[in-house]
């Protein structure tokens, strides 16, 4: 395929949720749209979301969505979220023949429990909207030309388009195709890129003993991150120990702030409240009773009422208490030490896994240079952005995919409306 040339009204870069939705909307409004995707299939990253089940949105109000992206920063997405809300998204998929279900904390999944059902609806809608989907097509460069842009693809293919929407995703899980191309393309078009960093990423701990706890999961716990004088307390949730540190929903959600804090502090203290439903006094009276009732029992066995079995040895070793000690031999100080550690089990966070292993990329094309009402560049008219390529991330729960779908929809609509 050498030197072939195509022309379209709108070229969309990236067949993820943002790009697919942008192309669908542009096609629905009667524009000729080309969707340029380097993979040979659609939505490679969608297929691994929600552990293959795709948590595509959340039932929370749009105001909650905005706050999830940061009290001030989230305002940028207001127009996009209200132009194409979670209700609109759910209706879009239902109209496409996919029933949805709501799970804990308002997380929305397809009833099939298969992310592939989501990409099937997108494929169907792209077809119905008359979008020219170009698979195996990697965009290398964008050049301005009179009345639009020339797009240079691999293999000498070029396309001319009146408008271009960059929806090429972030720079994490690169095997999915999201290799950060959009950042360099945007930079070459004159855009500022807010520093890229991992977000929704497991954290590394200094303590060597974490290795011994690899695979141990904790439920109904609360985390506190200690940044200098500041304390940031999480909701109640789950954590998982890994061979290098900690992961799991609570850690991933807190990781964006932790990674930013690690720019300033070399280490951060993280404490785990293993019994957030009980005050210290309540734990004290519980232990006093249990130790009295089972005076001959080994403390290692008694702790099974309070901790996962695999955690007990490490927990007691850190307090210098032998597992073999009998309950009736425990001193008041030792009992207090157990209670203190149950309420604030401490780890030292020293870093995170790299951006490649983060669920989303922090940073990206600076929001200040994008018009939030249209997603059009303030630097390069006719160029639009959608999805993860734009700076600003939310915790897990379906918020990031809704951002991609909403900004994609808005960019597709506004680009289509502006075509003369
Ligand atoms: C393991 C994991 C689980 C996740 N789970 C969830 C979840 O359950 N819920 C949720 O809300 N979010 C989840 N996310 C985040 C979510 O997947 C992203 O926020 C979302 O996919 C971003 O959409 P996007 O369209 O902007 O980019 P992407 O989905 O990354 O799509 C970008 C597309 O652009 C293509 N592309 C890139 N460069 C070029 C180029 N030069 N030429 C042509 N094509 C190009 C890529 O191949 C890719 O297909 C998860 C992420 C990961 C990694």
What does this entry look like structurally?
The mean pLDDT is 96. The chain is built from twelve helices and 18 strands. It has helices at residues 17-28, 62-68, 78-83, 86-95, 115-128, 181-188, 249-264, 280-293, 299-302, 309-318, 332-343, 399-418; strands at 5-13, 33-36, 57-58, 100-102, 107-110, 132-134, 139-145, 148-153, 158-166, 193-199, 203-205, 217-227, 230-241, 245-247, 268-273, 345-352, 360-365, 383-385. The chain starts with a strand and ends with a helix. Helices cover 32% and strands 25% of the residues. The strands form four sheets. Strands 1, 2, 6, 7, 8, 9 and 18 form a seven-stranded mixed β-sheet that branches. A six-stranded antiparallel β-barrel has the order 11-14-13-12-15-16. Helix 1 (17-28) packs parallel to helix 12 and helix 8 crosses helix 11. The chain has two domains: 5-197 and 361-418, FAD/NAD(P)-binding domain, CATH 3.50.50; 202-352, rRNA adenine dimethylase, C-terminal domain (Helicase, Ruva Protein, domain 3). With 420 residues, it is an alpha+beta fold. Residues 13-19, 36-39, 44-45, 48-50, 54-55, 138-139, 167-169, 172-173, 177-179, 181, 359-360, 387-388, 398-401, 404 line the site of flavin-adenine dinucleotide. Residues 13-19, 36-39, 44-45, 48-50, 54-55, 138-139, 167-169, 172-173, 177-179, 181, 359-360, 387-388, 398-401, 404 line the site of flavin-adenine dinucleotide (FAD).
